Amino acid sequence: MGDSKKLLILVGSPRRNGNSATLAAAVQRGAEEAEIHVSLRFIDDSISGFLRDCRQCRLPNGECAIEDNFRQLFFDDFLPANGVVFCSPVYWYGLSAQTKVFFDRTFCYYSASYADSAQVMEQMTRKRLGLVLASEETYPGASLGIVHQIQEYCRYTHSEFVGVVRGIGNSRSEVVRDPGAPMVAAEQLGREIFNRRYSDFRINTERSGRVWHQDDDRS
User: Fold this and answer.
1) How many CB atoms lie within 10 A of CB 70?
2) Domain boundaries 3-192, corresponding CATH code
3) pLDDT recorded at residue 2
4) Which of 18, 128, 130, 177 has its CA 20 to 30 A from that of 40?
5) Domain map (residue ranges) of the chain
6) Mean pLDDT over residues 146-162, rounded?
7) pLDDT value at position 59?
8) CB-based contact 198:162 (threshold 8 Å)
9) Contacts of residue 165, Cβ cutoff 8 Å, sequence gap at least 6
10) In this predicted structure, what is the pLDDT of residue 215?
């Protein structure tokens, strides 16, 4: 492997051959071309229910009582990943229910009522994250709420939000005909997830006067 880092692609669409899945496959191709260890998972293969009241639901041993495979997805795939790309359709100008429930269910394990919550929180932080969206609406504002949500999640977990890809399409796999070339952008995101330039300056940040550095600058 050219890169020992692990990338997880989480697909929040219920359709296995829809536009979100098509874009997710492009991210996977790009990552594989870069010899990144990549896994692709459909969220609804692992989640069957919403977050409940942990005070009433948690088992005596501290584990979540919801009987599905979320724990496996979270502990075996998400926490060990160095990077995660969330692929979701835009439903009612927000993330799909599957994707939102994934975020909600993480609370079961970083809540203080879970014995190993400190270790979980440590593993949740400092990841490289990307977002891939499929929407039938072309106007730019359709996805702004989702972008803001993922941005805030990244700031909350000290993660780096390195890229957004938005593909337009409605019928099955129609996104491949989007003239904006989201398939190309999705592959590029997969290839570059761990080396793409990321900057998020604060007023007191120590930084160079340049974003793009050159080894030999003769200008």
Assistant:
1) 23
2) 3.40.50.360
3) 47
4) 177
5) 3-192
6) 96
7) 87
8) yes
9) 23, 27, 130, 131, 132, 133, 182, 185, 186, 189
10) 63
